[in-house]
Structure formats: structure tokens, C-alpha cells
């Protein structure tokens, strides 16, 4: 396809052709979940190296640098770290919300009982790890960090599962993806309720009014991206001023994005056929596209029809996948994953309830919670397994769900905002638990999952 396009463009330079050959596989690559996982690993390693080098103080200085806007007496500013954690990560949860909405409306989660099973599994994967951690840290300085082991790092978990593509069914991949999405939503709820600061009633009322405006715009048939973008920014500001973590605004905004096309598929086919016929008639002349306003107008009309036949939800989702995978999540890892590993920290971590609680929550609590709640949902008839998935398969997925990393670090920074020592103990526990969970999950899949035959593998891909 790329070669045909290149041949039909006479003015395309050699450099442009070479770039098109290079960018096509790159674009395909970055759309895979494994890409985000690889970049997260790379930037996390960079963060660790910088945190244990003479550059550590420089990185910390950048982290705390203030950036904002001031007009007369009004001022709004956040540190670079807060802009990443509260601003850019809002886009990550916005994308999560879009994916969930699409899957429920027309995707793999449209089967009610399968969705119920995922919800039950995700709930168990949140409650039981939090309970494990709380038991170990009750009445201690780390008690407030019970939310840390409730999180699952979507990119890492799915990235590792992708390494076993020849052994894993597509149903199990979808199950883990949906589990991670519901886990992220649970994280947002936990953050909003239990990790909120002093709540401002006027700001909450303003946020509620904006949400009503967003739903009204959806029902009114408004499809302009800029309208939802402006209201989304206002919603983010109101939620942030309300004392609630602003990442909640990303999920709320996603629920209001239109999921219907402006024109039907049959109307789209009729319009495109008519426009292409008229364009073919114009081709009889030797006038180039640049010299023919009518040809340009026809091409523009084709583009407008293509946009009208797609949904805003799909356009936002596809537009955000790449920047979030290759920019936002790696940036978050760079500024949050690293910490100085000293002999004193390791010795303290061995006996620290915070480190032990996180390891127990992620390595033991996550699998126990997911499996316990899944089993109860299946036995009661409340949920059912996706096609081609055995309960034995969920064991491996439940272990991979213990890879907290990015999201657990996110919780750690919220849990102990004024205590770097506790954050470092938490990060040590997160690192150990994520590595152990990844290893155990990989070993289970490798030893318990038979290789799929080539025909099934090809069909899944």
C-alpha cells in the first residue's frame, strides 16, 4: 500500500519516500501496548540512573520548578511534577475512559455477564490488596498508603502478556485489558474520595454545571472537538480547585464524548460514490489539483464525509494513543520512578511495614483478590468467562495484575506528599513487588499455557 501511494505522488522526494517507509512501521509499533511498556522500562532505568548520580539534585530542581500563569493579582501555578501527575496524566485517564466506553457500547465488553466478571475481579483486586496493606500498617506512619497496592500498570502487564502471544488467547488478553481499565477507574474513585484535600463546594458545583453542559452538547449533536476540549479544560480547573485530584476530570469528560457518527454508513457510501464519480469526470482535463479549485473542493468534501462517518470518540482515542504511549507515560516514569538506592534504604526497607505491606498487597493480595472474587462471580452465575478462557488462565493474569509500578508510584506520591523518606520506602516495595509479580506471572504462563497452533495464532493477530 505504501509503495503504491509513493508511486502515485510524482513530487515526492527521495527523503519523503524514505521517511514514509520508516514512519509506517513505527506508527504501527507505537500503537501496540508493548511499546509503552518498553519505553516505561527505558525511562525508569534512566530515572534510576539519574537519581543515583550527581545529576540527582538537578532532576529534583526541575521536579519542583514552578510553572503557571499570572494575571494582575490572580495566579495559577504548579510544579513541573504536578503538571505531569495532575495535568498530563489526566489525558491518560481520559483515554482509559474512552476505551471503556467504546468497549461497553460496541466492543468486547458488550456481553453483560463478561463485564460483570471483570468488574468483580477488579473489585477483588482493589479491596484485598488494600486490606493486606492496612493490616500490616494499621496505626503506623504508612497507614494512609493503603491505596498503593490497589493499582495495576496497564502497559507493563499487557506488554508482558504480549510476549506470550503464541500461548495466550485473544479472550484472555481482552480480559486483562478490561481488568486494567476497571482497575484504573477504581483508582480514580479511590483518589477522588480518600485522597482529596479540603473540598470546595462552589468548585464542585461549577464542575457539575460543566458536566451538564457537556452532556447537553452531546445530546444536541455537537461534534466539534474544540468545544469539548475547552469545556474539558474548564472541568479540569474546577475539579483541581475543588480539592479533588484533577485526573477524575479525564474520566468524567470521556463519558460525555459522542459515540455516534454524524451520518449513517449508507449515507456515507452514497455521498462518497457521488463525489468520486464527479472527481473522475474532472480527471478528463489535464489541469492539476493545484490549478483546479473544483477538484480541491471535491477532495475537501470527501474528507468532511469521512470525518462525519467516524465518531468523535474514535478520533480522540486514536489521536491520543501515540502521545500517551511515547510521551506522557515515559515522562511520568522519568520524573517519578527514580529514587536513590542506598544500603541504609535497603536495610530499612527489609523491616519497613510500608515496603512489606506493598509487596504483600501486590504479590499476594492482587492474585488472591482477583481469583476469589472471580470464583464467587462464576459460581453464583453472576459472571461468565470470555470465550476460550479457562479459570486456570486467570491465575496467570492475576499475577501480572500485581505489576503496580507507574500507577502505584502515582498513589505513593499522593499518599505521602510531604515525606520523601516514606515515598522512597514505598517505591522500593513497588519495584520489588512488580518484578516478582512479572516473574511469577511469566513463569505460570510459560509452564501452564500450551502453545496455540499457527492457525489460531494467525486468526488472533
What does this structure look like?
With 461 residues, the protein is mostly helical. The protein has two domains: 32-195 and 245-260 and 311-460, Na+/H+ antiporter like domain (Na+/H+ antiporter like fold), CATH 1.20.1530; 265-308, no CATH class. It has helices at 2-7, 14-30, 33-51, 56-64, 80-106, 112-137, 154-162, 170-194, 201-219, 225-241, 247-256, 265-282, 293-309, 312-336, 343-351, 353-379, 391-400, 405-415, 420-448, 454-460; strands spanning 66-71, 74-79. A hairpin with a 2-residue loop joins strand 1 and strand 2. Helix 3 packs parallel to helix 14 and helix 7 runs antiparallel to helix 8 (170-194). The chain is globular, with a radius of gyration of 25 Å. The two termini are 19 Å apart. The model is unreliable at 1-12, 18-31 and 454-461 (pLDDT under 50).
Amino acid at each position: 500500500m505504501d509503495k503504491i501511494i509513493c508511486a502515485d505522488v510524482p513530487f515526492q522526494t527521495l527523503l519523503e519516500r524514505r521517511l514514509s517507509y520508516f514512519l509506517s512501521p513505527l506508527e504501527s509499533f507505537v500503537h501496540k501496548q508493548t511499546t509503552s511498556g518498553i519505553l516505561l522500562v527505558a525511562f525508569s532505568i534512566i530515572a534510576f540512573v539519574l537519581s543515583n548520580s550527581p545529576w540527582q539534585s538537578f532532576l529534583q530542581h526541575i521536579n519542583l520548578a514552578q510553572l503557571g500563569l499570572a494575571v494582575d493579582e490572580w495566579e495559577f501555578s504548579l510544579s513541573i511534577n504536578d503538571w505531569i501527575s495532575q495535568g498530563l496524566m489526566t489525558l491518560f485517564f481520559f483515554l482509559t475512559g474512552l476505551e471503556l466506553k467504546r468497549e461497553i457500547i460496541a466492543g468486547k465488553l458488550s456481553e453483560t455477564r463478561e463485564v460483570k466478571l471483570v468488574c468483580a475481579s477488579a473489585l477483588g483486586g482493589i479491596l484485598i490488596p488494600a486490606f493486606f496493606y492496612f493490616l500490616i500498617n494499621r496505626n503506623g506512619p504508612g497507614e494512609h498508603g493503603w491505596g498503593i497496592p490497589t493499582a495495576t500498570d496497564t502497559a507493563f502487564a499487557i506488554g508482558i502478556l504480549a510476549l506470550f502471544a503464541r500461548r495466550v488467547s485473544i479472550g484472555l488478553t481482552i480480559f486483562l485489558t478490561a481488568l486494567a481499565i476497571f482497575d484504573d477507574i477504581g483508582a480514580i474513585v479511590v483518589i477522588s474520595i480518600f485522597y482529596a484535600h479540603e473540598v470546595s463546594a462552589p468548585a464542585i458545583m461549577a464542575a457539575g454545571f460543566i458536566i451538564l453542559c457537556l452532556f447537553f452538547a452531546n445530546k444536541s449533536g455537537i461534534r466539534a472537538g474544540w468545544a469539548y476540549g475547552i469545556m474539558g479544560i474548564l472541568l479540569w480547573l474546577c475539579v483541581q480547585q475543588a480539592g479533588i485530584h484533577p485526573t477524575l476530570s479525564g474520566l468524567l469528560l470521556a463519558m460525555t464524548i459522542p459515540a455516534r457518527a454524524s451520518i449513517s454508513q449508507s449515507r456515507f457510501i452514497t455521498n462518497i460514490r457521488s463525489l468520486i464519480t464527479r472527481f473522475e469526470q474532472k480527471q478528463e482535463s489535464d489541469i492539476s489539483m493545484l490549478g483546479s479549485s473544483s477538484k480541491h473542493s471535491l477532495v475537501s468534501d470527501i474528507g468532511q464525509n469521512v470525518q462525519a462517518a467516524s465518531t468523535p470518540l474514535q478520533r480522540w482515542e486514536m489521536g491520543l494513543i501515540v502521545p500517551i504511549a511515547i510521551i506522557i507515560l515515559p515522562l511520568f516514569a522519568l520524573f517519578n520512578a527514580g529514587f536513590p538506592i542506598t544500603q541504609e534504604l535497603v536495610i530499612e526497607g527489609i523491616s519497613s511495614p510500608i515496603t512489606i505491606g506493598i509487596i504483600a498487597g501486590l504479590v499476594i493480595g492482587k492474585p488472591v483478590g482477583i481469583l476469589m472474587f472471580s470464583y464467587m462471580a462464576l459460581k453464583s452465575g453472576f459472571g461468565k468467562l470470555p470465550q476460550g478462557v479457562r479459570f486456570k488462565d486467570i491465575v496467570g493474569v492475576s499475577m501480572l495484575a500485581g505489576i503496580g509500578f507507574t500507577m502505584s508510584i502515582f498513589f505513593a506520591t499522593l499518599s505521602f506528599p510531604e515525606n520523601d523518606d516514606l515515598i522512597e520506602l514505598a517505591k522500593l516495595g513497588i519495584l520489588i513487588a512488580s518484578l516478582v509479580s512479572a516473574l511469577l506471572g511469566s513463569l505460570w504462563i510459560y509452564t501452564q499455557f500450551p502453545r496455540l497452533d499457527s492457525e489460531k495464532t494467525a486468526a488472533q493477530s
